[in-house]
Design a protein that fits this description.
Rossmann fold, alpha/beta, 2 domains, three-stranded parallel beta sheet, binds NADPH dihydro-nicotinamide-adenine-dinucleotide phosphate
Length: about 280
Amino acid sequence: MNNKPLTILNGTEVAKEHEQILSTKISELSTKPHLVIIQVGNNPASTKYIQYKKLFATRVGATVTHTQYEDNITENDLVKNINSFSSDASVHGIIVQLPLPKTIRPWIILDAIDPKKDVDGMTSFNLRHVYENNEIILPATTKGIFTLLSNYNISLDGKNVVVVGRSSLVGKPTALASINRNATVTICHSHTKDLASITKSADILIVAIGQPNLIKEEYIKENCVIVDVGITVGEDNKVSGDVLLSSISEKADAISPVPGGVGPMTIVSLFENLLQAYNLRD
Ligand code: NDP
């Protein structure tokens, strides 16, 4: 049993501090940073996330244009519309809210975004820079994870980092960016055999799978740091992470809770990326 009390990596608090700094920086600009959010179809979770982004934008003084298309829009038409936002000098950031309908190939659409306006860090250009350890704009969740850890002086250098989840949105970019921060990285996924034997080797365990409470005491090593990225909303509207906090509390050193951990860090990171994109504009 770990004698140290569990540190809660309080994303709500850290995000508030970053929000304050962001608001001050934006208030000093001559024009407001302008974010375009593109939604295809009517996915209710996407609509909710967009609503959060709009509210956040209002608080920090950014402008958001939310453009919604029918889910039968063609790839070509969507690309054309994104191209026009990409070449519009009054637009500083563009997000395509994922997931897209199955008929649309996400990479074709994402690559229509001018990389300088790619505040989600999901274009091939920006991902290649992560791949080459020459990061420009990091995907917002990945950036949020590192900002949270660094606020608690938790370094990745020389650590064994295990990332559970290999999505293009979270798992893969987080694993690559952890390598860039000199961690030794293992990636696990649904085909991983004996997951617990691998997660137990982690100094820092990052879990992004969307399987509520899967990670328990027997999956972790003593004194580890856990970043719980998962968000599952139950039928009772209760939000659960991928880690059962009550089970790990006497063994781990620190954990980012759900809610109140990586979620708020993701949104503030997105708007930090928007400010960076504003500053990168031609
Ligand atoms: P995806 O569904 O795209 O990917 C989930 C990943 O988890 C896959 O790689 C899958 O493996 C793996 N996985 C699923 N079940 C298991 C299991 N039992 N054991 C090991 N690996 C497993 O999800 P995302 O990456 O988009 O999101 C992951 C979670 O993070 C979700 O809960 C999502 O809501 C949340 N999220 C939170 C954000 C935040 O800001 N806090 C932002 C984005 C996402 P395989 O590849 O083999 O299928």
